[in-house]
Amino acid sequence: MKHPSATPAADVDALFGLDALDTGAPPDECGSAGHDGVRGPAAEDRSSFRDSPTARRLLPVRTVYAEPGSAASARGREILARFPDAEVTEVDSHWRIPGLHGNEGNVERWVRVKGETLVLGERKTLTTRPNGRSADWIAPGASNGCAMACAYCYVPRRKGYANPITVFTNIDAIIAHLARHIARQGRKPEPNQCDESAWVYDIGENGDCSVDALISDNTADLVRFFRRRPSAKASFATKFVNPDLLALDPRGRTRIRFSLMPAADSRLLDIRTSPVDDRIAAAADFLEAGYEVHFNLSPVVLRPGWQEAWTEVLRHLDDVLPDRVKRQAAGEVIMLTHNRELHEVNLGWHPRAEEVLWQPALQQGKRSENGALNVRYTNRVKAEAVQALRGLVASHAPWLRIRYAF
Ligand code: SF4
Protein backbone atom coordinates (compact mmCIF):
# COMPACT_ATOMS: atom_id res chain seq x y z
CA MET A 1 0.00 0.00 0.00
CA LYS A 2 1.58 3.29 -1.10
CA HIS A 3 0.52 6.76 -0.19
CA PRO A 4 1.69 9.37 -2.65
CA SER A 5 1.76 12.05 0.01
CA ALA A 6 3.97 9.99 2.31
CA THR A 7 6.27 12.16 4.41
CA PRO A 8 9.95 11.31 3.87
CA ALA A 9 11.66 10.04 7.01
CA ALA A 10 13.95 13.04 7.31
CA ASP A 11 10.98 15.37 7.10
CA VAL A 12 9.17 13.41 9.78
CA ASP A 13 12.20 13.74 12.04
CA ALA A 14 12.32 17.47 11.51
CA LEU A 15 8.58 17.82 11.90
CA PHE A 16 8.55 16.20 15.31
CA GLY A 17 11.72 17.61 16.70
CA LEU A 18 13.32 14.20 17.06
CA ASP A 19 16.54 15.99 17.83
CA ALA A 20 14.89 17.29 20.97
CA LEU A 21 16.61 14.58 22.98
CA ASP A 22 19.98 15.10 21.38
CA THR A 23 22.28 16.42 24.05
CA GLY A 24 25.20 16.98 21.80
CA ALA A 25 27.15 13.98 23.07
CA PRO A 26 29.36 12.58 20.31
CA PRO A 27 28.09 9.36 18.77
CA ASP A 28 30.17 6.27 19.45
CA GLU A 29 31.01 3.69 16.83
CA CYS A 30 27.63 2.00 17.11
CA GLY A 31 25.89 5.22 16.28
CA SER A 32 24.41 5.70 19.72
CA ALA A 33 25.44 8.63 21.85
CA GLY A 34 28.32 8.15 24.20
CA HIS A 35 26.90 7.49 27.67
CA ASP A 36 27.39 5.69 30.92
CA GLY A 37 24.01 4.04 31.00
CA VAL A 38 21.71 6.99 30.63
CA ARG A 39 22.26 9.03 27.53
CA GLY A 40 23.10 12.66 27.46
CA PRO A 41 21.57 13.74 30.74
CA ALA A 42 24.44 11.99 32.54
CA ALA A 43 26.51 14.94 31.45
CA GLU A 44 24.05 17.21 33.21
CA ASP A 45 23.06 17.34 36.85
CA ARG A 46 21.12 14.13 37.39
CA SER A 47 19.24 15.56 40.32
CA SER A 48 17.56 18.09 38.09
CA PHE A 49 17.31 16.68 34.62
CA ARG A 50 13.88 18.19 34.32
CA ASP A 51 15.42 21.64 34.64
CA SER A 52 18.04 20.89 32.01
CA PRO A 53 18.01 22.47 28.57
CA THR A 54 17.23 19.04 27.11
CA ALA A 55 14.05 18.69 29.13
CA ARG A 56 13.09 22.31 28.60
CA ARG A 57 13.37 21.81 24.85
CA LEU A 58 11.06 18.83 25.07
CA LEU A 59 8.49 20.66 27.18
CA PRO A 60 8.72 24.40 26.58
CA VAL A 61 5.44 25.03 28.40
CA ARG A 62 3.86 28.35 27.41
CA THR A 63 0.17 27.81 28.13
CA VAL A 64 -1.46 26.22 31.15
CA TYR A 65 -5.18 25.54 31.33
CA ALA A 66 -6.12 25.01 34.94
CA GLU A 67 -9.20 24.23 36.93
CA PRO A 68 -9.24 26.85 39.73
CA GLY A 69 -9.02 24.25 42.50
CA SER A 70 -6.07 22.62 40.79
CA ALA A 71 -4.20 25.86 40.31
CA ALA A 72 -4.67 26.68 43.99
CA SER A 73 -3.63 23.25 45.26
CA ALA A 74 -0.14 22.59 46.59
CA ARG A 75 0.79 20.48 43.57
CA GLY A 76 -0.73 22.99 41.19
CA ARG A 77 1.25 25.84 42.73
CA GLU A 78 4.47 23.84 42.47
CA ILE A 79 3.85 23.19 38.79
CA LEU A 80 2.94 26.77 38.00
CA ALA A 81 6.08 27.94 39.79
CA ARG A 82 8.12 25.75 37.46
CA PHE A 83 6.73 27.55 34.42
CA PRO A 84 6.57 31.18 35.58
CA ASP A 85 6.36 32.59 32.06
CA ALA A 86 3.42 30.42 31.03
CA GLU A 87 0.07 32.07 30.44
CA VAL A 88 -2.53 30.54 32.77
CA THR A 89 -6.14 30.27 31.68
CA GLU A 90 -8.85 29.09 34.06
CA VAL A 91 -11.13 26.35 32.76
CA ASP A 92 -14.21 24.75 34.29
CA SER A 93 -13.15 21.23 33.46
CA HIS A 94 -10.03 19.60 32.12
CA TRP A 95 -12.32 17.60 29.86
CA ARG A 96 -13.80 20.60 28.07
CA ILE A 97 -11.25 23.02 26.73
CA PRO A 98 -12.51 24.54 23.48
CA GLY A 99 -9.99 24.47 20.69
CA LEU A 100 -7.44 22.37 22.56
CA HIS A 101 -8.40 18.74 22.21
CA GLY A 102 -9.42 16.95 19.05
CA ASN A 103 -7.98 15.98 15.72
CA GLU A 104 -8.45 19.24 13.88
CA GLY A 105 -5.52 21.05 12.42
CA ASN A 106 -2.18 19.80 11.30
CA VAL A 107 0.46 17.80 13.01
CA GLU A 108 2.78 20.73 13.61
CA ARG A 109 0.02 22.18 15.73
CA TRP A 110 -0.57 18.93 17.64
CA VAL A 111 3.06 18.42 18.45
CA ARG A 112 3.49 22.03 19.47
CA VAL A 113 0.44 21.68 21.70
CA LYS A 114 1.83 18.54 23.31
CA GLY A 115 5.06 20.31 24.25
CA GLU A 116 3.86 23.83 24.92
CA THR A 117 0.57 23.22 26.69
CA LEU A 118 -0.26 21.74 30.05
CA VAL A 119 -3.58 21.11 31.70
CA LEU A 120 -4.07 20.99 35.45
CA GLY A 121 -7.15 19.26 36.74
CA GLU A 122 -8.48 17.13 39.55
CA ARG A 123 -9.22 13.49 39.11
CA LYS A 124 -12.83 13.16 40.18
CA THR A 125 -13.27 9.41 39.79
CA LEU A 126 -10.96 7.35 41.91
CA THR A 127 -11.44 3.78 40.81
CA THR A 128 -9.03 0.88 40.70
CA ARG A 129 -9.94 -1.66 38.03
CA PRO A 130 -8.94 -5.31 37.88
CA ASN A 131 -6.64 -6.25 34.99
CA GLY A 132 -4.91 -9.60 35.45
CA ARG A 133 -2.60 -9.45 32.44
CA SER A 134 0.23 -6.98 32.86
CA ALA A 135 -0.85 -5.93 36.34
CA ASP A 136 -3.36 -7.16 38.87
CA TRP A 137 -4.92 -3.72 39.05
CA ILE A 138 -5.10 -0.54 37.00
CA ALA A 139 -4.70 2.36 39.42
CA PRO A 140 -6.33 5.72 38.83
CA GLY A 141 -3.52 7.46 36.96
CA ALA A 142 -2.03 10.74 38.06
CA SER A 143 -2.12 12.07 34.51
CA ASN A 144 -3.87 11.72 31.19
CA GLY A 145 -2.22 12.47 27.88
CA CYS A 146 1.36 12.49 26.74
CA ALA A 147 3.99 14.78 25.31
CA MET A 148 5.21 12.00 23.03
CA ALA A 149 3.36 11.27 19.80
CA CYS A 150 3.54 7.55 19.02
CA ALA A 151 1.53 6.84 15.89
CA TYR A 152 -0.23 3.79 17.34
CA CYS A 153 -0.98 5.29 20.75
CA TYR A 154 -4.45 4.71 22.13
CA VAL A 155 -4.06 7.25 24.94
CA PRO A 156 -5.53 10.18 22.94
CA ARG A 157 -8.63 8.20 22.04
CA ARG A 158 -10.94 10.16 24.29
CA LYS A 159 -9.57 13.67 23.93
CA GLY A 160 -8.26 13.49 20.38
CA TYR A 161 -4.79 13.35 19.04
CA ALA A 162 -3.85 16.84 20.19
CA ASN A 163 -3.89 15.65 23.76
CA PRO A 164 -1.24 17.30 25.91
CA ILE A 165 -0.54 16.13 29.43
CA THR A 166 -3.23 16.74 31.98
CA VAL A 167 -1.65 16.54 35.42
CA PHE A 168 -4.03 15.55 38.18
CA THR A 169 -3.07 17.68 41.13
CA ASN A 170 -5.07 15.80 43.76
CA ILE A 171 -2.27 13.27 44.10
CA ASP A 172 -2.93 12.98 47.84
CA ALA A 173 -6.45 11.73 47.14
CA ILE A 174 -5.15 9.26 44.55
CA ILE A 175 -2.59 7.92 47.02
CA ALA A 176 -5.11 7.75 49.86
CA HIS A 177 -7.41 5.75 47.57
CA LEU A 178 -4.55 3.38 46.72
CA ALA A 179 -3.63 2.95 50.38
CA ARG A 180 -7.18 1.87 51.17
CA HIS A 181 -7.34 -0.45 48.16
CA ILE A 182 -4.03 -2.11 49.01
CA ALA A 183 -5.02 -2.51 52.65
CA ARG A 184 -8.27 -4.22 51.62
CA GLN A 185 -6.44 -6.82 49.51
CA GLY A 186 -4.24 -8.16 52.29
CA ARG A 187 -1.49 -10.48 51.18
CA LYS A 188 -1.50 -11.91 47.69
CA PRO A 189 -2.64 -15.50 48.16
CA GLU A 190 -0.63 -17.08 45.37
CA PRO A 191 1.76 -16.21 42.54
CA ASN A 192 0.34 -15.29 39.15
CA GLN A 193 1.69 -13.96 35.86
CA CYS A 194 1.75 -10.42 37.26
CA ASP A 195 4.04 -11.19 40.18
CA GLU A 196 5.15 -13.91 42.55
CA SER A 197 4.03 -12.24 45.73
CA ALA A 198 2.95 -8.62 45.27
CA TRP A 199 -0.26 -7.10 44.03
CA VAL A 200 0.85 -5.15 40.97
CA TYR A 201 -0.74 -1.77 40.27
CA ASP A 202 -0.27 -0.17 36.86
CA ILE A 203 0.10 3.53 37.62
CA GLY A 204 0.56 4.75 34.05
CA GLU A 205 -2.34 3.57 31.95
CA ASN A 206 -3.02 6.86 30.22
CA GLY A 207 0.37 8.44 29.85
CA ASP A 208 4.08 7.94 30.44
CA CYS A 209 5.14 8.38 34.08
CA SER A 210 8.75 9.13 33.11
CA VAL A 211 7.58 12.07 31.01
CA ASP A 212 5.16 13.18 33.73
CA ALA A 213 8.13 13.40 36.09
CA LEU A 214 9.46 16.24 33.94
CA ILE A 215 6.52 18.32 35.13
CA SER A 216 5.62 17.39 38.66
CA ASP A 217 6.42 15.13 41.61
CA ASN A 218 3.37 12.92 41.04
CA THR A 219 5.47 10.01 39.79
CA ALA A 220 7.96 10.53 42.63
CA ASP A 221 5.16 10.55 45.20
CA LEU A 222 3.76 7.29 43.83
CA VAL A 223 7.16 5.59 43.80
CA ARG A 224 7.81 6.71 47.39
CA PHE A 225 4.35 5.57 48.46
CA PHE A 226 4.82 2.04 47.07
CA ARG A 227 8.23 1.88 48.75
CA ARG A 228 6.33 1.41 52.00
CA ARG A 229 3.84 -1.17 50.72
CA PRO A 230 5.37 -4.65 51.08
CA SER A 231 2.29 -6.40 49.66
CA ALA A 232 2.08 -4.24 46.55
CA LYS A 233 4.18 -2.96 43.68
CA ALA A 234 3.77 -0.12 41.20
CA SER A 235 4.37 -0.76 37.52
CA PHE A 236 4.51 1.44 34.48
CA ALA A 237 5.65 1.17 30.87
CA THR A 238 7.83 3.88 29.43
CA LYS A 239 9.51 4.96 26.23
CA PHE A 240 11.42 7.79 27.82
CA VAL A 241 14.61 7.69 29.86
CA ASN A 242 14.32 10.19 32.68
CA PRO A 243 17.40 10.05 34.91
CA ASP A 244 15.62 11.97 37.67
CA LEU A 245 13.82 8.74 38.49
CA LEU A 246 17.14 7.20 39.54
CA ALA A 247 17.11 9.28 42.71
CA LEU A 248 13.73 8.06 44.00
CA ASP A 249 14.95 4.97 45.91
CA PRO A 250 12.01 2.67 45.07
CA ARG A 251 13.45 -0.26 47.07
CA GLY A 252 12.16 -2.84 44.62
CA ARG A 253 8.53 -1.76 44.89
CA THR A 254 8.30 -0.16 41.43
CA ARG A 255 8.63 -2.08 38.19
CA ILE A 256 9.67 0.02 35.24
CA ARG A 257 8.92 -1.61 31.91
CA PHE A 258 10.99 -0.25 29.06
CA SER A 259 9.06 -0.68 25.82
CA LEU A 260 11.18 -2.00 22.97
CA MET A 261 10.79 -2.48 19.27
CA PRO A 262 13.17 -2.63 16.31
CA ALA A 263 14.99 0.68 15.85
CA ALA A 264 13.65 1.21 12.32
CA ASP A 265 10.06 0.75 13.51
CA SER A 266 10.68 2.99 16.47
CA ARG A 267 12.08 5.78 14.30
CA LEU A 268 8.96 5.58 12.16
CA LEU A 269 6.37 5.14 14.91
CA ASP A 270 7.68 6.21 18.35
CA ILE A 271 7.66 9.92 17.73
CA ARG A 272 9.60 12.10 20.23
CA THR A 273 10.60 9.20 22.50
CA SER A 274 14.06 8.16 23.69
CA PRO A 275 15.89 5.94 21.18
CA VAL A 276 15.40 2.23 21.87
CA ASP A 277 19.12 1.68 22.45
CA ASP A 278 19.04 4.33 25.16
CA ARG A 279 16.16 2.59 26.92
CA ILE A 280 18.13 -0.66 26.89
CA ALA A 281 21.30 1.08 28.02
CA ALA A 282 19.45 2.61 30.97
CA ALA A 283 18.24 -0.74 32.34
CA ALA A 284 21.27 -1.46 34.53
CA ASP A 285 21.22 2.01 36.06
CA PHE A 286 17.56 1.65 36.95
CA LEU A 287 18.13 -1.77 38.50
CA GLU A 288 20.99 -0.39 40.57
CA ALA A 289 18.78 2.48 41.65
CA GLY A 290 16.29 0.00 43.13
CA TYR A 291 13.76 -0.59 40.37
CA GLU A 292 12.64 -3.91 39.05
CA VAL A 293 13.34 -3.67 35.32
CA HIS A 294 11.17 -5.48 32.81
CA PHE A 295 10.74 -5.11 29.08
CA ASN A 296 7.66 -4.71 26.95
CA LEU A 297 8.14 -6.10 23.48
CA SER A 298 5.48 -3.84 22.13
CA PRO A 299 3.76 -3.16 20.02
CA VAL A 300 4.84 -5.96 17.72
CA VAL A 301 4.12 -4.68 14.23
CA LEU A 302 4.03 -7.27 11.46
CA ARG A 303 5.75 -6.12 8.28
CA PRO A 304 8.18 -7.71 5.85
CA GLY A 305 11.36 -8.57 7.74
CA TRP A 306 9.83 -8.24 11.21
CA GLN A 307 11.38 -11.45 12.51
CA GLU A 308 14.89 -10.44 11.44
CA ALA A 309 14.40 -7.03 13.02
CA TRP A 310 13.26 -8.51 16.34
CA THR A 311 16.14 -10.97 16.24
CA GLU A 312 18.45 -7.97 16.15
CA VAL A 313 16.70 -6.40 19.16
CA LEU A 314 16.94 -9.60 21.18
CA ARG A 315 20.58 -10.21 20.27
CA HIS A 316 21.39 -6.66 21.26
CA LEU A 317 19.63 -7.17 24.61
CA ASP A 318 21.59 -10.34 25.16
CA ASP A 319 24.87 -8.67 24.24
CA VAL A 320 24.62 -5.53 26.33
CA LEU A 321 22.58 -6.33 29.43
CA PRO A 322 24.54 -7.35 32.50
CA ASP A 323 23.64 -10.69 34.10
CA ARG A 324 22.08 -8.96 37.10
CA VAL A 325 19.51 -7.34 34.82
CA LYS A 326 18.83 -10.58 32.96
CA ARG A 327 18.31 -12.54 36.19
CA GLN A 328 15.36 -10.42 37.28
CA ALA A 329 13.95 -9.44 33.90
CA ALA A 330 10.65 -10.55 32.46
CA GLY A 331 8.84 -9.45 29.34
CA GLU A 332 5.42 -8.83 27.91
CA VAL A 333 4.62 -9.34 24.26
CA ILE A 334 1.85 -7.10 22.98
CA MET A 335 0.77 -7.34 19.39
CA LEU A 336 -0.34 -4.15 17.69
CA THR A 337 -3.92 -3.07 18.21
CA HIS A 338 -5.02 -0.35 15.87
CA ASN A 339 -8.15 1.66 15.36
CA ARG A 340 -9.98 2.89 12.27
CA GLU A 341 -10.34 6.45 13.52
CA LEU A 342 -6.67 6.65 14.40
CA HIS A 343 -5.83 5.21 10.98
CA GLU A 344 -7.77 7.99 9.32
CA VAL A 345 -6.17 10.64 11.48
CA ASN A 346 -2.70 9.25 10.78
CA LEU A 347 -3.28 9.23 7.03
CA GLY A 348 -3.56 13.00 7.28
CA TRP A 349 -0.15 13.54 8.82
CA HIS A 350 1.95 10.41 8.88
CA PRO A 351 0.85 8.07 6.08
CA ARG A 352 4.13 6.18 6.11
CA ALA A 353 3.25 4.90 9.56
CA GLU A 354 -0.01 3.57 8.19
CA GLU A 355 1.85 1.56 5.57
CA VAL A 356 2.91 -0.76 8.40
CA LEU A 357 0.14 -0.21 10.95
CA TRP A 358 -2.85 -0.70 8.65
CA GLN A 359 -2.76 -4.17 7.10
CA PRO A 360 -6.36 -5.20 6.29
CA ALA A 361 -5.24 -8.54 4.84
CA LEU A 362 -3.82 -9.51 8.25
CA GLN A 363 -6.28 -7.78 10.55
CA GLN A 364 -9.81 -8.14 11.80
CA GLY A 365 -12.10 -5.53 13.28
CA LYS A 366 -13.82 -5.57 16.62
CA ARG A 367 -16.31 -2.99 17.82
CA SER A 368 -15.30 -1.73 21.27
CA GLU A 369 -17.70 -0.79 24.08
CA ASN A 370 -17.56 2.89 23.10
CA GLY A 371 -18.40 2.10 19.47
CA ALA A 372 -14.91 2.56 18.02
CA LEU A 373 -13.71 0.00 15.50
CA ASN A 374 -10.55 -1.57 16.87
CA VAL A 375 -8.41 -3.61 14.56
CA ARG A 376 -6.24 -6.54 15.55
CA TYR A 377 -4.29 -9.19 13.74
CA THR A 378 -6.56 -12.14 12.96
CA ASN A 379 -6.48 -14.96 15.48
CA ARG A 380 -4.42 -17.17 13.19
CA VAL A 381 -1.93 -14.46 12.21
CA LYS A 382 -1.53 -13.39 15.82
CA ALA A 383 -1.10 -16.93 17.15
CA GLU A 384 1.58 -17.67 14.56
CA ALA A 385 3.38 -14.39 15.21
CA VAL A 386 3.33 -14.86 18.99
CA GLN A 387 4.69 -18.36 18.58
CA ALA A 388 7.40 -17.09 16.24
CA LEU A 389 8.40 -14.31 18.62
CA ARG A 390 8.48 -16.70 21.57
CA GLY A 391 10.79 -18.86 19.48
CA LEU A 392 13.07 -15.90 18.79
CA VAL A 393 13.20 -15.07 22.49
CA ALA A 394 14.01 -18.70 23.33
CA SER A 395 16.84 -18.68 20.78
CA HIS A 396 18.38 -15.26 21.35
CA ALA A 397 17.39 -14.13 24.86
CA PRO A 398 16.45 -17.35 26.67
CA TRP A 399 16.77 -15.64 30.05
CA LEU A 400 13.79 -13.38 29.21
CA ARG A 401 10.77 -15.00 30.81
CA ILE A 402 7.66 -13.94 28.94
CA ARG A 403 5.04 -13.06 31.54
CA TYR A 404 2.33 -12.92 28.96
CA ALA A 405 1.72 -12.47 25.26
CA PHE A 406 -1.36 -10.71 24.05
S1 SF4 B 1 4.93 7.27 25.08
FE1 SF4 B 1 3.17 5.91 25.50
S2 SF4 B 1 1.53 7.28 26.16
FE2 SF4 B 1 3.06 8.55 25.14
S3 SF4 B 1 2.40 8.71 22.99
FE3 SF4 B 1 3.84 6.98 23.13
S4 SF4 B 1 2.53 5.16 23.47
FE4 SF4 B 1 1.31 7.00 23.96
UniProtKB/TrEMBL annotation:
Looking up Gene3D superfamilies in the UniProt record yields: 3.40.50.12110, 3.80.30.30
Q: Which InterPro entries match?
A: SPL, Uncharacterised_Spl-rel
Q: Which UniProt keywords are given for this protein, alphabetically ordered?
A: Lyase
> Does the entry feature the keyword NADP, yes or no?
no
Q: Which GO terms describe its cellular component?
A: endospore-forming forespore
Tell me the Pfam families matching this sequence. Answer: SPL
Molecular functions per Gene Ontology: 4 iron, 4 sulfur cluster binding; DNA photolyase activity; S-adenosyl-L-methionine binding
Asked if the keyword Lyase belongs to this entry, the reply reads yes
Tell me the superkingdom of the source.
Answer: Bacteria
Show the NCBIfam families listed in the entry.
Answer: lyase_spl_fam
Instruction: Supply the name of the protein.
Output: Spore photoproduct lyase family protein
Organism listed in the record: Streptomyces actinomycinicus
What taxonomic classification does the UniProt entry list for its organism? Bacteria, Bacillati, Actinomycetota, Actinomycetes, Kitasatosporales
